[in-house]
Hints:
The structure holds three protein chains of three kinds.
Chain A (H helix, E strand, L loop, with lengths): L1 H5 L1 H26 L3 H22 L4 H25 L4 H25 L10 H4 L7 H20 L1 H9 L1 H6 L4 H23 L4 H13 L5 H23 L7 H19 L5 H35 L7 H7 L4 H13 L3 E4 L2 E4 L1 H22 L21 H13 L6 H4 L2 H6 L1
Antiparallel strand pairs in A: 1-2
Chain B lengths: L3 E10 L2 E11 L4 E5 L6 H8 L7 E6 L2 E2 H4 L3 E4 L13 H7 L2 H4 L7 H13 L15 H14 L4 E5 L7 H16 L3 E5 L3 H7 L2 E6 L1 E7 H4 L2 H8 L5 H7 L6
Parallel strand pairs in B: 3-8, 3-9, 6-7, 7-8
Antiparallel strand pairs in B: 1-2, 1-4, 4-5, 9-10
Chain C lengths: L2 H25 L3 H22 L4 H24 L4 H23 L7 H6 L9 E4 L2 E5 H19 L1 H9 L1 H6 L4 H40 L5 H26 L3 H19 L5 H17 L1
Antiparallel strand pairs in C: 1-2
Helix pairs in contact in C: 1-6, 1-9, 1-10, 2-3, 2-4, 2-9, 3-4, 3-9, 6-9, 9-10, 9-11, 10-11
Amino acid sequence: MLNLLMDPNTQWVLFGTTLLGITSGVLGSFALLRRQSLIGDAMSHAALPGICIAFLITGEKMMGALLLGAGISAYIGTYCIQAIVRHTRLKMDTAIGLILSVFFGVGIVLMTFINRLPSGNQSGLDEFIFGQAAAMVSGDVRVIAIVAVILLVITLLLFKELKLLIFDREFAQGLGLPTTVLNGLLMTMIVTAVVIGLQAVGVVLMAAMLIAPPITARYWTNRLDHMVIISGLVGALSGGLGTFISAPITGMPTGPLIVVSACTLFLISLVIAPERGLFVKAWRLYQLRKRTAQEQILQSLYERTEEQYEKTETIDAFSREALEALRPLSDFRFKKAVANLQKSGDVEAYKNGYSLTLSGCERAHRVTLNNRLMQMYAMHELQFASLPMEHYNWDFLSIPEDDRNSLDHLLKEHQLQPKLLHRLPETERINR
Amino acid sequence: MNPITANNITVAYHRKPVLQSVSFEAPEGKLIGIIGPNGAGKSTLLKSILGLVPKASGDVNIYGKTYRKQRQIVGYVPQRGSVDWDFPTSALDVVLMGRYRQIGLFRRPKKNDVKEAMSCLEKVGMEQYANRQISQLSGGQQQRVFLARALAQNAHIYFMDEPFIGVDAATEKAIVQLLSELREQGKTVIVVHHDLQTVKDYFDWVMLLNVRKIAFGPTNETFTSDLLQKTYGGKLTFLDQKEEEGVPFA
Amino acid sequence: MTYTFWILLTASLVGISCGIVGVLLILRKMAMLSDAISHTVLLGIISSYLITNSLDGFYMFIGAAIVGVLTTVFVQLLNSAGVQSDAAIGVVFTFLFAIGVILVSMFARDVHIDVEHSIMGEIAFIPWMTVDWFGIEGIPQAVWMLGFVLIIDLFLILLLYKEFKLSSFDPGLAAALGLPVGLLHYVLMGMTSITAVASFDAVGAILVVAMLIAPGATAYLLTERLHMMFILSAVFGVIAAVTGYFIAAWLNASIAGMMATMAGVLFLLAFIFSPTHGIIAKRFSQRKIQQVDIET
Lengths: 432, 250, 296
């Protein structure tokens, strides 16, 4: 194993695939955010006829010429997709599928011509279909490295312009940015990233290199700059891992292993990522359901008690029916929530129903207040449009004082402020 | 028995509540408008009643049974933008779709169904467009085709999501005509509506909705400036103007 | 029965069955899902070989159909987990295809599952791979399978015509009317899978996408009627297949590649010359509108 890693050929391959991973990861981020992931798939397939034509013209496997041919025909394919969507009622997905399969078909036809040429049998063009990273030689890697560096430098220099372009093209135009040029440049850069990856990963699987690293990165961050960096790292890691695993096994194709590594990294992130991962999401949903049920019971109890205290100045227990009339819950949820509330000492069960304890009364007060503030907020959403409620987790008790005061004022106006807690006389509170 | 009884409907996207504990009982044979500001959850309320969005809590009964059991008596007119009008099909064909349940799984439409669909098209004044491809119809005509399709369902309760949006005056008139016809037949119609000016003319009952139900009742009792203020908060400026102009609003 | 006859029959069967299934895929905006399915068929074939240890067409057929449907299930799962749909498709199919390629190169190097073959298909060998089924001799296996699949496709589309129509046009209403929308989706995915598998031998994984999408897309530019779209799509499928074969024979080039190319050429013709949706007709009607504007 170590011997193999010391082998200069393997080192070149490793270097090449890692670089490819970085570039496709970085540029794939932009494609993903524009919801154009599958265009990469179309580009790589559409590159095939260009490769063949370049070979037919030059008559030999000249890397530069092949890449140029690939780029041109991938570009034409992309243009065709856009033309179809613009001029007909066909939708994007149909246009992509149509172009990628038809261009690939043309490529296959051209390939049969090449295979009949005397030099064709050794042309090695087949490796563009499935990729053959192991066959990369130092010359190929040098070409890849130069192109990759150029792509990365352009991305770095134009980062904020590209960011604005994918986020809000019209606004970018309004700012006077040359959006058409930028858009063309971005497309060209994505095409280039696809083209240099073809030799290693192949036409069929290239799409994965543009898609898997960025969606993996998306799970770990909400910021574009971080996403682009993480995506590049994920791409590099998958490129390296795939090469590393496949190198010692004879006959093991590198491209598919790179793709499997990238997809595995994605699947892992999908499950365990903080905030967006499935585990965390499921846990949060469970907590939310549990809390909502408890809060609904607390608020119903509070409102019933409030109502009664207003009339009779006494406090009583309330039956499940009386609570259900305000906010019905399923049998299972009700029992479970009540059991939890009893355990936390917020609710006591009596023969004739349920009643709030002192601490329960305070908690119910907070819940009720928060929900009623939410109502005020919803009714006057425009007035509070600048209040970042997501940031406060929709907890109105933690918002700045000014906003809180105006919401309180509204509550008073609608006579909705929760009164129970403050009305209960001290003795009543203790001697129940 | 009430055509619709809704209990404690709560819908939330992520953590943001869209509907909060909405409960109501709709009376039979009335035209009912649901009004409220943008983002108040009007369409969401319809969709949650029809089971098209998941509810966080609550249940809905149609004539005392679950919606699943009563589908055959419920008609739904979605927003016009919700379908692809490039679909290769004719106006008559779209109306026929309303009868698919009566026709039954695996069966083809019979002459009778076609005749029925045709008469529904006539009711909305679209009979001469029966064979027109749907993308060649104007917005108002498309809306009328949707209404004809709902008629073809021959339901007892109709739900309509913003049927008046983006239609011409003729279509608006046709829809109003149709609504009162449905009421005469004793059907219950619930319409999501945004134009406050026309509420009093179009609906017998209104629900004021803003995440939670603000009020629900006969229009002349419910559509009051006080309750509207409560629903729209400070956003409702035209109300004051109206009152200044001396137009009695409540 | 001559060699050419069998090839033309196979190609036509591919054209018809892909053509009619493709119409539904296009109208439901699921064209790329068919691309995904056609790729993952490879994994189905190699898995069924590894499990049964035989190259029996029937087992492969079942294996591929199962993986095809699984592909759509995975895409749906990722979708509901919040992954945007195009990325979900892209990840699922490349992942499954990559696993397929790895399995082939690890366990099945020496058998007749050639990855290249699976991509490009080899219709030229089909007339020689005959089987004796139901006591009838000398009919190629691919023809049996394609005929069988075509009958299933036709049967299901005729049986569920109006259900497919409504659930494609307005899934909301279809659900509200109580149509089994989810089931219809998986029926269509099943049809796509078996059609892709049966066509696989003839045209390969990627070119089957051309046969699925291009004829339907061409028909979409020429008609306003759904049933007509099915008929035209099937006809274009056959035309592409037959002309593709003859041109390929004449140029001595890949038959499957040429079939896909011809499907593309037919689309290009419709794109330019369609009386209703072609760019010439559109230019013309635009000019007319401009003239009217000037006159008035």
